[in-house]
Amino acid sequence: MMNVSWYPGHMTKAKRMMQEDIKIIDLVIELLDARIPISSRNPDIDELARGKSRLVILNKSDLSDPGENERWIRYFTDKGIVTVLIDSKRSKGFSQISRSIEEACKAKIERDKKRGIIGRPVRAMVVGIPNVGKSTFINSLCRRASTKTGNKPGVTKGKQWIRLNKNVELLDTPGILWPKFESEQTGLHLAIIGSINDEILDETELSIKFIEWLTNSHPGALHKRYDINEDEETYVILQDIARKRGCIKKGNEPDHEKAAKIVLDDFRSGQLGNITLEIPS
Predict the structure, then answer these.
(1) Could you report the per-residue pLDDT of 206-247, keeping only the tens digit for each?
(2) What is the helix (H) or strand (E) element at residue 56, kind and residue range?
(3) pTM summary value
(4) Domains, the chain, ordered by start
(5) Of the four, 17, 22, 62, 173, which is 20 to 30 A from 267 by CA?
């Protein structure tokens, strides 16, 4: 068993701040990682966004399985949630955003018209877990560097308002997790994609867990990338990857830690192929 959790103090502060800001928000835009759409959903957001219009953005779709992407779109759509598939880094899928915001806020816009309120922009809060790509999403949406971005979880520490156009104002928020994950699997998924600080993790153990899952779910992926025999025990596979990648310590011993980092980095960057860790139930 590998229990993973990470809930630093700034996340508690960020959650309190969001609870205050939600009072003036019309729409909650929730970014999820397309590779783990369920594990990357913060259950606290459902409570926070109760009574608000919702829009789900499945980001990093360039790294996930295209067939599973379509299944996840249907999954959320069937639940009545407006859903858009995007790749923030390459700005793919962004042509649908404005139309989807209007669709998600249709009832709110109609209410405003009946009350004689015309021209008031939709106020949208952008939420998501660490490292899901919120800042890159907003930057791409605005076509300028509106927010600070980075590849480490927890870069955005404070709130920022960005005027998208005359019809929409966006409130960026820090990425937050929740104090206790529902299952070991959720924690593992979040750790594998990089939403939990690697410094608190046993990356060797995490990599072994991932290799075990990958050899069962995507046979051939490791062989294609590292030219190793996947029929060996998981620990031996990691040793073989270490040798193939020149990760050797004194005494000609394989460096498992370096090899583990390589495997995780290769998955996170898409070098192992388009892989989705979760499928719709």
Answers:
(1) 999 999 999 999 999 999 999 999 999 999 999 999 999 999
(2) strand 53-59
(3) 0.88
(4) 9-172 (3.40.50.300), 202-268 (1.10.1580.10)
(5) 173
